[in-house]
Amino acid sequence: MSFVNKNLRYLRQQHGWTQKELADKLKVKQPVIGAYEEERSIPPLFTLLNIAELFSLSLDVLVQEDLSKPNAKKKILPKKEVLAITVDSNDQENIELVPQKAAAGYLAGYQDAEFVSELPKISMPVLPRNRTHRAFEIQGESMLPIQPGSIVFGEYVESLRDVKNGKPYVLVTKQDGIVFKRIFRFDEHKDSLLLVSDNREFAPYTIKASEVMELWFVVSFYTKTLPEAGLQQPALVDQLALRVAQLQKK
Fold this sequence. Notes:
Blueprint: H1 4-15, H2 19-26, H3 30-37, H4 45-54, H5 59-64, E1 96-98, H6 103-109, H7 113-117, E2 133-137, E3 151-156, E4 168-173, E5 177-184, E6 192-196, E7 205-208, E8 212-222, H8 234-249
Parallel strand pairs: 1-2
Antiparallel strand pairs: 2-3, 3-8, 4-5, 4-8, 5-6, 6-7
């Protein structure tokens, strides 16, 4: 049984906030809070995370414990960085695009809700709506055949413990900025990450896990440039030329 709706009302009243004040803090509309408290709607995951962070509670306690009871366990979380997000008029998360020209500013403003709200929005209807996504315009040729200028879509990863070895990620790092690499993490070196490019002309390198400020698992990409690798094979080009010549004679 979930107590999240009941707990939200209890926590709001304990802090002496109106529904409007709570809505402003969670960056949603007041009727949304009313729907939650009246159990007409259940908060999506990203809103649950924001509620848990706002009230310094663990997510499992927020959902599974009746906080109005005197013996309720209130597991306080240590302060941590909060992911800034925006939502549309239907209380659905937007997908913000971080273009190359905004990459430097993103390092300073990735936690700033106002900065994030000013980023362009991009649509990808096939992505799950109950998860947090962000889009990044990549530069450089380290991940060929994905071309420079392509847009990769990342799903937010909350913890490095969830990293899947060999999978592609966008990392927001303190020293190197925004990078797009495959990650390898080994048990004997838990404090380090090995970053590998698909383009073997770029050597792998390691960074400290503490350097990572945000992590996004790449689930899709968009490019304006069609791949030409197949047409660069001489045998295939010759076959195509021969076929065209045959058609022209008919």
